[in-house]
Amino acid sequence: MASSRATSRSPRDIANVMQRLQDEQEIVQKRTFTKWINSHLAKRKPPMVVDDLFEDMKDGVKLLALLEVLSGQKLPCEQGRRMKRIHAVANIGTALKFLEGRKIKLVNINSMDIADGRPSIVLGLMWTIILYFQIEELTSNLPQLQSLSSSASSVDSIVSSETASPPSKRKVATKIQGNAKKALLKWVQYTAGKQIGIEVKDFGRSWRSGVAFHSVIHAIRPELVDLEKVKGRSNRENLEDAFTIAETQLGIPRLLDPEDVDVDKPDEKSIMTYVAQFLKHYPDVHNAGSDGLETDREDRLILKEMKVWIEQFERDLTRAQMTESNLQDKYQSFKHFRVQYEIKRKQIEHLIQPLHRDGKLSLDQALVKQSWDRVSSRLFDWHIQLDKSLPAPLGTIGAWLYRAEVALREEITIQQVHEETANTIQRKLEQHKDLLQNTDAHKRAFHEIYRTRSVNGIPVPPDQLEDMAERFHFVSSTSELHLMKMEFLELKYRLLSLLVLAESKLKSWIIKYGRRESVELLLQNYISFIENSKFFEQYEVTYQILKQTAEMYVKADGSVEEAENVMKFMNETTAQWRNLSVEVRSVRSMLEEVISNWDRYGNTVASLQAWLEDAEKMLSQSETAKKDFFRNLPHWIQQHTAMNEAGNFLIETCDEMVSRDLKQQLLLLNGRWRELFMEVKQYARADEMDRMKKEYTDCVTILSGFTTEAHRKFSEPLEVSFINIKLLIQDLEDIEQRVPVMDAQYKMITKTAHLIAKESPQEEANEMFATMSRLKEQLTKVKECYSPLLYESQQLSVPLEELEKHITSVYDLLGKINEIITVLEREAQSSALFKQKHQELLACQESCKKTLGLVEKGSQTVQKFVTLSNVLKHFDQTKLQRQIADVHVAFQNMVKKTGDWKKHAETNSRLMKKFEESRAELEKVLRVAQEGLEEEGDPEELLRKHTEFFSQLDQRVLNAFLKACDELTDILPEQEQQGLQEAVRKLHKQWKDLQGEAPYHLLHLKIAVEKKRFLAFIEECKAELERETKLVPQEGSEKVIKEHRMFFSDKGPHHLCEKRLQLIEELCVKLPVRDPVRETPITCHSALKELRAAIDSTYVELMENPDKWKDYTSRFSEFSSWITAKETQLKAFKDRAIDATNHSQIKRASDEIRNDVTKNGETLSWLKSRLKILIEVSSENEAQKKGDELAKLSSSFKALVTLLSEVEKMLSNFGDCVQYKEIVKSSLEELISGSQEVQEQAEKILDTENLFEAQQLLLHHQQKTKMISAKKRDLQQQMAQAQQGAGGLAGPGQEELRKLESTLASVEQGRERQERRIQVTLRKWERFETNKETVVRYLFQTGSNHERFLSFSSLESLSSELEQTKEFSKRTESIAIQAENLVKEASEIPLGPKNKQLLRQQAASIKEQVKKLEDTLEEDIKTMEMVKNKWDHFGSNFENLSIWITEKEKELNALETSSSAMDMQINQIKVTIQEIESKISSITELEEEAQSFAQFITTGESARIKAKLTQIRRYWEELREQAQHLEGTVLGHLSQQQKFEDNLQRIQQSVSEFEDKLSEPIKICSSATETYRVLQEHMDLCQALESLSSTVAALSASARKVVRRDSCLQEAAALQQRYEGALGKAKERQTALEDLLAHWQRLEKELSSFLTWLERCEAVASSPEMGMSADRVKVEGELQLIQASSRKCTEGK
User: Which of 633-647, 836-850, 1011-1025, 1610-1624 reaches the highest mean pLDDT?
Assistant: First the structure.
C-alpha cells in the first residue's frame, strides 16, 4: 500500500522538484543577466542601473538604452513622468523591431509579456541579446570554430518547445545545436582543457569545482594561476579565487557568485555568459585554429569514406533485389541489408547535419545525403514489394500495414502559422482515422493466417510472418494513442492560433490613436471581432475540449514526462489567457474612453469658443449687463476645466500629429480665456447676502422646529408599550445625535447673523440677536431634559420588551392550541397526525401556563418601575393593565374550550372509527365481487377462484355496516345525514344485485369447464385412434393392442366423456329455460356416439393381425437345451469327492456355470414377461398351452440352480476351514498394534504449539480411528462368516482368538476416553483463542487509530475525534474485562507445560496492552479536551476582537462624515487611538493562545489560523492607520479653517477700508490740473484694490477646502460680492473722473479759443457799425457753446 501511494505521488513530486529547480535557475539567471546589463549600461552617458530586471524592463526605457550601448545606434524612446502602459508597449515594440531588423528570430516574444514583467520571457529576451551581441560575435571571430556554427545565426537556431509551451511561456532559447554554444565549448576544450588535461564536457557540472575557470585564466595568463594549488582546495574557494582574479587582473565583470555555481545543476546560460567574456582577453585566437582545421579535414575524409560505403551498399542491395529466389530467401536477404542500414543510420544522419551559417550543406554532405536518401528509398520499396508479393489477402494486409506504419511514424510539420498547423493536423487526422479504422478486420485476418502459418495452403516465410506480427502489435498498440495525440495537437494549435490572433489584434488596438473617426473604426473592429464573433466563448469552448482531450491523452500515454509537458502547457496557457483576456477586455473601455474624451473635447471647445466671442463683445457693455451675463461664470470655469482635462488626455493617447494640433488649439483657447478671466473674474460671485439671509432663516426654522418637537416628546402623555417606548428611545437618541449638529448649526448661524447684522438696520439686528438668545435657551433646556428621560426609558424597555414577548408567546400558544384543536376535530383518533397533535396540545398547554406566570411577574415589575420614576410621570399604564386582563380571559377561554373538545372527541371517535371500518370492508367485498363477475379467462381458474370467493360472502358484513351507520347518523348533523343515507342505500342495492347474479354466474362457469373437459377427452381419443392406425405397420399389432386396451379401458377418456356429459346435463337443467347454454348436452351426445363407433372398428382390425409368437419360440428351444447339458455336468461334480487335486478344476467349472446361470436367468425372465404379454393378445387355448410349457422349463432351471449351490458350498467350506485361523489371528494383532500406536500419537496433540496444528492432529487422529474401526468391523464380519462355514474348528485356535478380541476391546475403550478428553480441552483452547482474537483485533484496530500524533484540521474534527475517543474508551473497558477472563481461562486449560505457560504469557501480554490502551485513551481525552477549550476560547476572543475592530471602523467612518465640532472630533479620535493601541495586547494574547495548541493541529489549519492572526493584525494596523490618518486630516481641516478665518478677517478689514474711501464724495475740482491729480490718486486706489483680487480668489479657493465648506463659501462669496462692489464703485468713480477731466480739458481749450476770438473782436470793434451784424451772430453762437460747456462742467462737479 505504501508503495502504491508513493507511486501515485511520484508525478507530483517530480513536478515540484522540477519547478523548484526552474525557480532556482531563474534566480541565478536574473542575477547574472542583471550584472551583465549593468556592466554595459555603466558605459552610457548618463549611466543607468537595473535594480530589478523584471520590473525595470517593463517600460522599455532601459531595454532601449542597453541596445543603444550594444549597437551604437540611437533608438527612439518615449519617457516621462506620466508614462502609461501604451508608451511602455511602444518602447518594447521598438526594441523588438530593432532586433528583428538584425535578422534575430524572436520566437513567441511579444511586447505585452515584457510589459507584464513575465520572468521566463524577460530572461529569454536577455539571453537572446547576450547570445547575439556577445557570445556569437566573439565565437564568430574564431576561424577554427566557424564550421561549427549552424544556420544563419545562432539565434536563428533557437527552438522553443512547441509541444509544451504556449506563446507567452515558451522558452526563448532551449536548444542550441552546433552553434555558438558548441563553438564556445570547443574553444574551452581546445585551449584550456586540452592543454592542461582537464575534461570540460558542458557548461554545467564541469565548472562546479572552479578548476575549469582557473584553466581558462591559465590559458590567457599562466602566471596568475597555480593549478596544483587549485586542485587541493574546496569548490567555493576555487570559484571565489577565480572570479576575483578575473575581475582584478583581467577586468572581467563578476557576473557569478560561488553559490550560483557550486550546486548540483549549475545554470549553463549564466556560465556561458560569463565564460564568453574571456574570449576578449585570449592572446591569439587565430593560432588556436590549427586543431579545428585538422578536424575539418578529418570530417571531409569521413564523408568520402561514408559515400563509398553507401554506393557499395546500394550496389549490393540492387543485386540482391534482382536475384531470383524463393520468398523465404529474399526476406532473409532483406533482413540482412536492413540490419546494416540501421547500424549506419545514426552515424550518417549526424554527418549530414548543416555546418554552414546559411543552413546549406557542404558538397560532400550533399552527395552523401543524396546517396543515403536513394538507398533508403530503395530499401523501403523492397520491403513494400516483399509484403505485396505475399499471397492474397496477406499481400494486401502487408501494403496496408506499411501505410499504417508510415502514418504512425509521420512527423508533424510545424508551420509558422498555428492555424495552418492545426488544419494540416486535422487533414492528417482524418486520413489516419480512415486508414486505421480497418485495423481490427486486418488483424483478425492476419491472426488466422498467423495461426495456420499459411495462406490457402501456401506456406509463408516464418521470419516475415513474425516481423509482420511485431508490426501489427506496434500498429494496434499505438494507433489509439496516436489518434488521441493528433486530436490533442490539433486542439492545441487551434488554441495557440486563437492566442496569437488575440495578441495581434491587441497590438493593433493599443496604438497611438488618431482622430475620433479612426478610433470609432477601431472600436467597431473590436466589437466585430470580440463580441459579434463571440471570441471569448469560442476560446472557452476550444479550451474545455482541449482540457478533456489532454486528460484522456495523458491518462492513455502514462508517461510522466509527457504528463508534465501537457500540464505545463495547460497551466501556462491558462496564465497567459488570464492576462491576455484582461488586456483584451480593457480595450473596449479604453477606446470608449478615448471617444468619450473626443466628444467631450469637441462639445466644450465649440461651446467655449462661442461663449468667448459673446463674452469679449460683452466687455464693452454696461456694468449691469456684464453682471447679468457673467453670473454663470462658474459653469464656464467647469467647462474650461473639462476641456483641458479631455484635451490633455487626448494629447497623451493620440499620435504626434494629432497631439500637436490639439496643443496649438488648447494654447490659443487658454490664452483667450486668461485674458477674459482677468477682466471678468469679479462677476463670478453675486447675491451672497441674499443667500446668507436665506441660510439664516432656514437655520432658525430648523432650530425652532427641533426644540419644539423635542419639548413635545418630553411632555406629551404616552401609553406604556414596548413599541411606544422603543419609538420614544429612537426619538430621544435622534435628539441626542442631533444636539451636537444643532449646536454647530447654532454657532454657524450666529456668525452668519453677525455678518448680516453689520449690513442690516439696528432694529433688524436686535431682533436677530433676540431670536438667537431664545434659541440658545431652548437648546439648553433640551440638553438638560433628554438625557435622564432616555436613560429611564432604556431601563424600562428591557422588562417591557420581555413582558410583551411573553404576552405574544401566550397568544401564539393560544392560537396554536386553537389550530391544533381544529386539526384534531377533523382527524381520526387512530391516525398518526392525531396522536402527534394531541402531544403538541398537552405541551402547548403546559408552556402557556408557565408563560402566563412570567407575564404576571413582568407586569408587576413594569408598573413598579413607572410608579417610582420621577421623569416618567406622563406615562399611561391603562392599556398595559387592559392587556394583562385580556391575556387572563383568553387563557380561561382556552382551558374551557380544550375540556369541551376532549369530551366530544372521546364520544365521536369510537363511532366514526367503527363506521369507516365496516364501510371499507363492505366496499372491498362489493368491488372484488363485481370484478369477478366481469372477469374473463380460463373457466377452470375462474370457477375455482369465484367459487371460493362467493362461498365466503357473509351477511354479517352488511349488517355490521348498517348498524354502524345507524349509530353514526345519531351524532351527525342533518346536512351530513342525507349523504350518508344515500351511500348506504347504494351499497345495500349493490349487495342484493350481487346475491342474485352470483349463482347463475357460477353455474355458467361449471358448464363451460365441463364442456371444455368433455371436448378435450373427445379430441384425445380421436388422436389416439389415428396414432394406432399409423403405428401398426411399424411396431406390430401386439404393442398397439396393449396400448389400445390401456387407453380405452374403463377409466379411459371415452368413459370420462360419458361422466362429463351426464354432469353437463345435470347442470343445464338448473338453468333458466331461455338460457342458450341449455342446448349444450345435445351437441355433446352426437360427438360421443361417433367416437364409440371408431373405437370398436379399430380394435377389431388390431386383433386380426398375426405373427406374434415367432421370437418367443426360438429363444424357448435354446434355453431348454442349455438346461439339460448343465444339469448333467453338475450331477457328475456332486458325485465325485473334492480334494486338493480337483478343487481348482471343479471351482473353475462351477464359476463358469454360475455366470451362465446369471445370463440365462435373464432369458427366463424375458420368456415369462413375453408370454404374459402374448397371452393378452391371443386366444385362451393358445395361451394355456404356452403357459404350461414355460412352467415346466422354469422348474428345470430352478433345479439346476439348487444343484449348482450345493456344489459351490462344498467348495467354499473346504477353502475356508484351511485359511481361517491364520487370517483372523494376523488381523487381530494388526488392529491391536494400530490402536496402541494411535493412542500414543494422541498424547502429543496437547503438546503442539498452536490450536490449528492441534486441531489438524485431532482430525488426523479421528481419521485413523475411523479406519481402525472399519477394519475391526470387517474382521468381525469375516470371523462370523468363517465360524458359520467352519463347522468345528479346533479348540486351542478358538481360545487364542477370544483372547485377542478381549485385548482389542480394552485398547478401544482407552482410546475413546482419551479422545473425549482431548476434544474437551481443544474446545476450551478454541474458545480462548476466539476471545483472544477478539481482543487482539480490537487492540489492532483501536491502537492503529490512536497510535498517532494528535493533529486536527478543524474544531469540528477535534470534537468528532474527542467523541470517538470517548466511545473507544468505553469499549476498551469492556475489552479489559475480557482480557481478565483470558488470564483465568489460560490457567484452567489442561495443556502441556510449555503450551500452558505460553498461553498465560499471551493472556498477560494482552491484558497489559489493554491497560496501556486505556491509559493512552485517557491521556488523549484529557489532551483533546484541553485543546478544545483553548481553541474555543481562542475563537471567541478572535470573534470579539473582530467585532470590536468592525465597530471601531464604523465609529471612525461616522467621525469622518460627522458634522460635530472639530475639537470634539479630535478628542474622540484620540480616545479611539488609545483604545486601539491597548488592543495590541489582545492580539498578542491571541497569538500566544494559538501557539499553545498549534502542535495539535494540522499544518493547513495552523497556516489558516496564522493567516487569520496576520489578517486581524493587519486589520488592527489599518484601523490604527485610519485613526491616525483621520486625526491628521481633522487637524489639517482645523488648521485650514483657522487660516481661512484669519485671511477672511484681514481681507474684510482691507475691503472695509476701501469701501470707506470710496464712500467719501469726490472733491470739487476747479481745474483740469486738480481733476487730473484726483484721478491719479483714485487710480492708485483702484490698483491697490485690484491687487487684492488674487487674495480674494485664493480665499474662495481655500473656502472649498475647509470642512465648513458651505458657510465658508457663503462668507467668501459675501466678501467677493463686497469686493466686486467696491471694485465696481472704484471703476465707476474712475470713469466719472476721466469724463470730468475730459470736460475740463475741452472747456479750457474752448475758453482759450473764445478769449482769442474775443480779443480779435475787441480789436475789430473799433471798425464801423455796418460790419457788426454778422459778427454779432457769430458771437452769440460762441456764447451759447460756452454756456453749454459751463453747464456740463457744473454737472460734472
Answer: 633-647
